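Protocol step 4 of 6: structure prediction from sequence.
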Amino acid sequence: MKRILITGGSGMLGKALVREWTGHAILFPVSSGQLDLRDAAAVGDAVRRLAPSVILHTAAYTNVDGAEGAPEDAAAVNDRGTAHLAVAAAACGATLVHVSTDYVFDGTKGAPYLEDD
């Protein structure tokens, strides 16, 4: 059975994924209180300990107005936190699936999105 780490496990999407995958995989849903994505060492330790084959990354700093007023806080989670997960996933051979929202990518670009979009 696949081992799946779900960041944002207490959020709407995380909870929906848990409902969908329960009984089909070994799930590790984590909230920000359980795993601070801003902490590279904590992320690396958690991924090594849980040894997931897949990481479904649904966690994010989602307060749009707050992000505009505190861009560093948003970047610490959304940018560097995602990078910490990518490094940890690569180190253990896990597949990382990163989910974004229409606030970031609304689908109107007309071409594939690039990492720096």
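Step 5 (inspection) to follow. The chain has four helices and four strands.
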